[in-house]
Amino acid sequence: MELIDLTHTFNKSMPVYPGDPEPKLEQITTLAKDGYTDSLITSVMHVGTHMDAPLHMIEDGKTMDQMPISTFFGKGILIDARGQKKIDTALLDGKEFAEEFIILIYTGFGEKYRTKDYFENIPQVTEAFAQEMVKRKVKIVGMDILGPDEPPFPTHKILLGHEILIIENLTNLDKLLHVSSFEIMALPMKLQADAAPVRVVAKIA
Questions:
Q1: Would the N or C end of the chain have less CB density within 10 A of its end CB?
Q2: CA dist 173 to 65, 105, 115, Å?
Q3: CA torsion angle 40 43 48 54 (round to 10)
Q4: pTM for this structure?
Q5: Mind listing the domains of the chain with CATH numbers?
Q6: Angstrom distance (rounded) from CA 6 to CA 92
Q7: Could you report the per-residue pLDDT of 8-30, keeping only the tens digit for each?
């Protein structure tokens, strides 16, 4: 068995969605002075590798803590979307997956994390792709970009409106390119909120 970490490290130098405040992660005590180490974190939810819950875009949608824990585990499929400006249903040709799969979209942007290029020419996940995810009853759609779409966020709303969770800012998806079968474990913090940091791991048998 091999485990692949698909999660960016959370620290104070992470890129944020344009307009959002930057996260703060600071040590507030020391072993020498206080006898123990403690740190303070101040952050919006939508930074780093994180998971969107329905409430993020849906009126009266579920918060992260209301989602069944079974949602966070499942068989995975990787969609190779490198070089694509639009992530559309054509990329699903030849991909066979059943209900409750977790779909990961590899654009290559994960390699640009912490650079200005990460914010430029970001691929967009089409509404048609999102509708196909609804049709196929997947559980989660994850990607190595800031998010699937731009305002007014139609793709977000389609997915979250059907309680299909969204993971943004993944990394290391290239390590799954030639893997025929893998499982995903994506455990968010149990927060009563519209999103949460998430640790995402691929398990290859």
A1: N
A2: 27, 8, 18
A3: 130
A4: 0.96
A5: 2-7+45-204 (3.50.30.50)
A6: 22
A7: 999 888 889 989 999 999 999 99
